[in-house]
Specification:
By secondary structure, the chain is mainly α. The chain has one domain. The chain contains 6 helices and 3 strands, in the order ααααααβββ. The protein is globular, with a radius of gyration of 15 Å.
Length: 142
């Protein structure tokens, strides 16, 4: 394995861990795809960095990064390995963007205080993503 291949494999694993910490294993497939689409849209925008892994490691963006205990458990392999493996498989699948270019989302049930809205949401356009639960995910684009 070349150094570049190793870097890509590590990057893919970190992205899969991030996806796994955002969604429970039993979430609808549409939610997995929508979260992955947001990550892909962010990568394409390059706003969060030029390398894909920078997008998921950007400060205060994803649960894996915001909640240190999630990150430590996931990196150590304690975050349901089969769930991370499934997320890695989904990451490598291709489909049309389900979010119409969304680059942001939040989970109303996970907000503190619960059901509150992040300060950036009113300045963006909400995107309806079929098959996702609005109690769990709300998607936005600029």
């Amino acid at each position: 394995m070349t150094f570049e291949e190793l870097q890509e494999a590590c990057s893919d694993y970190l992205i899969a861990v991030t996806i796994a910490t955002e969604l429970p294993p039993d979430a609808p497939i549409e939610e997995f795809r929508a979260v992955i689409d947001v990550i892909r849209n962010r990568i394409m925008s390059k706003r969060w960095g030029v390398k894909p892994v920078y997008t998921v490691l950007a400060r205060n963006q994803f649960s894996a990064v915001c909640r240190e205990e999630y990150w430590r458990r996931a990196i150590a392999g304690d975050w349901i390995p089969k769930h991370v493996e499934r997320c890695l498989e989904l990451w490598h699948e291709e489909w049309e963007d389900t979010t119409d270019g969304a680059t942001h989302y939040y989970s109303p049930i996970s907000m503190i205080p619960q059901w509150s809205e992040p300060n950036w949401a009113p300045s963006m356009t909400e995107v309806e993503v079929p098959g996702t639960r609005k109690t769990h995910f709300r998607f936005y684009k600029a």
